[in-house]
Design a protein that fits this description.
It is a single chain. The protein is of the alpha/beta class. The protein is globular. Helix 13 links the parallel strand 19 and strand 20. The chain folds into two domains: about 220 residues, 3-Layer(aba) Sandwich (Aldehyde Dehydrogenase, Chain A, domain 1); about 170 residues, Aldehyde Dehydrogenase, Chain A, domain 2. The protein is about 35% helix and about 20% strand. Strands 3-2-11-10-9-12-13 form a seven-stranded mixed beta sheet, sandwiched between helices. It is built from 14 helices and 21 strands. Helix 5 packs across helix 6. The termini are far apart.
């Protein structure tokens, strides 16, 4: 299945098209076919993963097969949400089953293209299966829709003037541009696409062109004719490929594009938006921590606070949006140095436990090495070899800390930290907990979307807003049937 030549690994990444697994059999030159043309069945294209440059093979795109005519109603339209949840729960059990060779093979392939180590990817896949839980999915629907019946039927309404109408949360046609940092997003996106009864096209990322197809193949093994299976397609093309995106990103084919990713990915999508084709964006976010001077009440409190901070920094080894990158610490420079040293120790320990040995990229190494020479304004703990780095400063560094790198920013008061919060601030891990209520309004005004106990950036309350919105409510196509006045 794979052939290894140093970094030139060639791994097969099949497509999934509404129940059919499509394999590429031989490499071909050229680009994807355009809408209205056919490409050779079984031909393959070779791509490179973004971070590692590892090569993988996919089938050649046949764009006509990615589009469902609008004359066809969504396959899930008349399937009750309760039955959709039943199928998702069964899928979750199959994903978590150690005997599931599809998922095992998926993680083995992904380990060659992904920056995270294989053991961590296996753990993330198991955690992702937990999302397909009956209570969780039911709560998600109930929190997103004031009247969940709208997903299953035309709900009667009457206004104060006596006008009658019916409202339906109609299944949309969605393109999902998935991120590559976690298998969990693939599970979440498939589940949410099913719950809103959408016709879904998943554009897989180059670092993980495997997980989405593996989940859908698992579904097909349960029931190849299930309407969920017939509502899902997953393929890969290089982001920004105009020959594909100009053909697909059109309102006659899709209602909305659900995009995850960095700035360039979102900017690329925006140029295709227009009447009838909308964006639901989980765009680039930076999460932070705010730590009050109460952290220095005792050596034990300092150790606990540093440990909680390291937990937030090291979410997916700092690959997640919720991973803390800037820690605003209330205290003196001497206290900030003590905290930074304790934080560095815990980051190094967590990095070692994860098995992640990635060095920082060259630009980041150069930035940090430069700061280490400016001892009057900065202090650096650790090396740029991927074992963990902490930078203490009086202003946030002007680069994006990543790959186990944390910037401790000393402030006289947490009030001073609020000015650094903006619309790109997703999660704020806060300590002490009894001061959170004093800051939540100001954080929201600054643009932040979530405040949590320090150390709890990862788990979230089921059904809460994500990135300042209720996503499922935005996914659907809201349709009104006006029925006059009685």
């Amino acid at each position: 299945m794979t052939a290894t030549t140093d970094r030139q690994i060639s791994v097969d990444a099949p497509f999934f098209l509404r129940g059919e697994v499509v394999e590429g059999t031989e490499s071909t030159a050229g680009t994807a076919g355009t809408a209205g043309t056919d490409s050779a069945e079984g031909s393959a294209e070779t791509h490179g993963s973004r971070e590692l440059g590892v090569r993988f093979r996919t089938p050649r795109l046949e764009l006509d097969r990615l589009v469902t005519p609008r004359t066809e109603v969504p396959p899930l339209l008349d399937v009750p949400v309760t039955e959709i949840i039943d199928f998702l729960v069964e899928t979750g059990r199959k994903i978590a089953d150690p005997a599931n060779t599809i998922m095992q093979e998926c993680i083995e392939r992904m380990a060659s293209t992904h920056v995270l180590p294989a053991e961590m990817l296996f753990r993330q896949a198991r955690y992702a299966a937990d999302y397909l839980d009956r209570k969780l999915l039911t709560t998600l629907v109930e929190r997103n829709f004031p009247d969940p019946r709208a997903l299953d039927e035309w709900v009667p309404q009457r206004d104060h003037t006596g006008r009658k109408s019916f409202v339906r949360a109609f299944g949309p046609r969605l393109v999902h541009v998935l991120p590559g940092n976690s298998p969990g997003v693939a599970v979440k996106s498939i589940a949410e696409g099913a719950l809103v009864k959408a016709v879904n096209l998943f554009k897989m990322p180059s670092s993980d062109p495997f997980t989405t197809v593996a989940i859908l193949r698992t579904m097909a093994e349960i029931d190849p004719e299930h309407p969920i299976v017939r509502s899902m397609s997953a393929v890969y093309w290089r982001g920004g490929d105009a020959s594909v995106e100009q053909a697909l990103y059109r309102p006659q084919y899709f209602d909305k594009i659900v995009a995850w990713g960095g700035g360039p990915a979102i900017d690329n999508v925006i140029k295709y938006l227009g009447p009838g084709f909308q964006l639901v964006s989980f765009d680039p976010k930076t999460s932070i921590s705010m730590v009050g001077r109460e952290a220095f009440a005792s050596p034990e409190t300092l150790a606990l606070t540093a440990d909680r901070t390291s937990s937030d920094v090291m979410m997916l080894n700092q690959e997640a949006c919720v991973s803390s990158r800037f820690i605003y610490l209330e205290g003196t420079q001497e206290e900030a140095d003590r905290f930074s040293a304790a934080l560095h120790t815990r980051i190094v320990e967590r990095a070692a436990d994860s098995g992640d040995r990635r060095r920082l990229d060259a630009d980041l190494r150069e930035q940090i090495d430069t700061l280490s020479m400016l001892e009057d304004d900065f202090r650096v703990w650790g090396r740029t070899d991927g074992t963990g780095v902490v930078i203490r400063s009086d202003e946030p560094v002007d680069f994006h800390p990543s790959n186990k790198t944390a910037n401790v920013v000393r402030v006289d008061s947490l009030d001073d930290a609020v000015r650094y919060v903006n619309v790109a601030t997703q999660t704020v891990g806060f300590y002490p907990f009894d001061r959170m209520a004093d800051y939540r309004d100001r954080l929201a005004s600054g643009g932040a979307q979530r405040i949590v106990h320090l150390g709890e950036a990862g788990p979230s309350t089921i059904g809460n807003p994500h990135d300042a919105m209720y996503p499922l409510h935005r996914f659907v196509h809201w349709m009104a049937h006006e029925d006059g006045v009685e």
